[in-house]
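Propose amino acids for all 217 sites.
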């Protein structure tokens, strides 16, 4: 068993990255399209991602500075055009999603690189991926920077202004997980399907685990 007090025995950023990616998982993947000021489209996946507010609806994802401390195109674009589309790709588009993580030159269009068609998204000028089962058109609220050093995060907070979801996937209440086929990212090249579900009932308010175990109401 090991305990690390990082102030006294720091771990390298590379070690912390691997520890985070292997233990904070599975992670959902934000597949994010943006535009630069010249109108060139960009598309890239980010698994440091989650919901951060429902009312207002806000999503958060974090492109890190790269190993040379340069910002990724997604962040540079968001500073030029303050909009994005956050897609959930499902297993059906996993190869295309992965293809868009290639380090292309700035201004090169990952939609074209991955053979993906663009369609318009209501409320934003940024295109969405045709065929993506779920997508959120977003306006930038804020980017929180965690420094100028390699692997520093840039937490993008993006407010959802429009929603695309396939009719077959949503009855207005429940999202059909079998149809969506959500995937999660683990460490390295590993992904996981959501095909081994189990249910855990939420506790009634005021009940504790020990009282439940004793059968107390
Ligand atoms: C599934 C997946 C998840 C990723 N998650 C992140 C992430 O959360 N943060 C990050 O900085 N890079 C992440 N990457 C790497 C970026 O996608 C990659 O650096 C990409 O080239 C960035 O594109 P951009 O420069 O066009 O913004 C991920 C890659 C994959 C395949």
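Proposal:
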């Amino acid at each position: 068993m090991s305990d690390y007090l990082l102030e006294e025995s720091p771990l390298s950023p590379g070690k912390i990255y691997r520890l985070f990616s292997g233990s904070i998982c599975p992670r959902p993947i934000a597949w994010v399209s943006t535009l630069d000021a010249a109108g060139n489209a960009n598309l890239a996946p980010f698994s440091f991602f989650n919901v951060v507010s429902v009312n207002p609806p806000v999503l958060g994802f974090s492109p890190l500075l790269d190993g040379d401390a340069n910002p990724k195109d997604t962040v540079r674009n968001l500073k030029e055009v303050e909009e994005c589309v956050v897609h959930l790709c499902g297993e059906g588009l996993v190869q295309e999603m992965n293809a868009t993580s290639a380090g292309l030159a700035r201004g090169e269009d990952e939609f074209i690189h991955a053979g993906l068609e663009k369609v318009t998204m209501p409320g934003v000028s940024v295109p969405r991926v045709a065929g993506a089962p779920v997508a959120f058109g977003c306006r930038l609220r804020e980017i929180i920077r965690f420094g100028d050093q390699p692997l520093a995060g840039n937490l993008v907070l993006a407010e959802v202004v429009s929603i695309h979801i396939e009719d077959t996937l949503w009855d207005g209440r429940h999202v059909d997980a079998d149809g969506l086929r959500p995937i999660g990212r683990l460490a390295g090249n590993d992904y996981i399907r959501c095909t081994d579900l189990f249910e855990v009932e939420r506790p009634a308010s005021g009940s504790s685990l020990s009282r439940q175990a004793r059968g107390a109401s």
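Residues 13-213 form a domain with the Pnp Oxidase; Chain A fold (CATH 2.30.110.10). The radius of gyration is 19 Å.
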